[in-house]
Amino acid sequence: MTLRVVILLSGRGSNFQAIAEARLPIEIAAVISNRPNAAGLDYARARGLTAIALDHTEHPDREAFDALLADEIERHRPDLVVLAGYMRILSAAFIARFEGRLLNIHPSLLPMFPGLKTHERALAEGVKIHGCTVHFVTADLDHGPIVIQAAVPVRADDTPGALAARVLAQEHCIYPQAVQWFAEGRLEINHGRVNLKGDPTSQSVLSTGT
Ligand code: GAR
Asked: Which residue's CA is the nearest one to ligand 1's atom 12?
């Protein structure tokens, strides 16, 4: 049976695009954005996918908006919900409804640099290795079980923009990979850690960029 996936995004949607173009054993049942003018929605429409705008500014109460969003997601009967640049904090009730089938990508090597402006902060700290993380979403913001990470060396003359672009290229590799593993039923969460079934060392959950 093909895995039904609902994508949530807020903007550009390049991670969604990478997943859509990766020839994965999935069906993208719907793409939903909290921002009606998100470029990701245009791309979804151009691919003939169901594209839905749910404008959060029309629903000032977070709990009420998240309940509406969750109902809309459920209508598409997803096996997996993929946050692809969805730039709103989700309520605990929303996360509880989808826990275990809710993935996020974050532009840092978590648990380092949760939150925003990760590339600026990585440069300010002088770290030599930066990167990105796909993780299961839990109530603990940006701290859920880690599925895969890609490491990106920081260069002496890096700028936030240059570093972000190299990290983004790695995001486009690891997110499709994570979704594929999920679709294959290979991701197992055990005491807050993700085991990759069929890979006793779980070594393949590391990828290195440039
Ligand atoms: C990506 O870099 C993603 O990691 C980040 O937003 C960008 C979305 O780009 N997500 C977060 O910061 C979540 N906390 P995209 O719309 O082109 O995929």
From this structure: 106
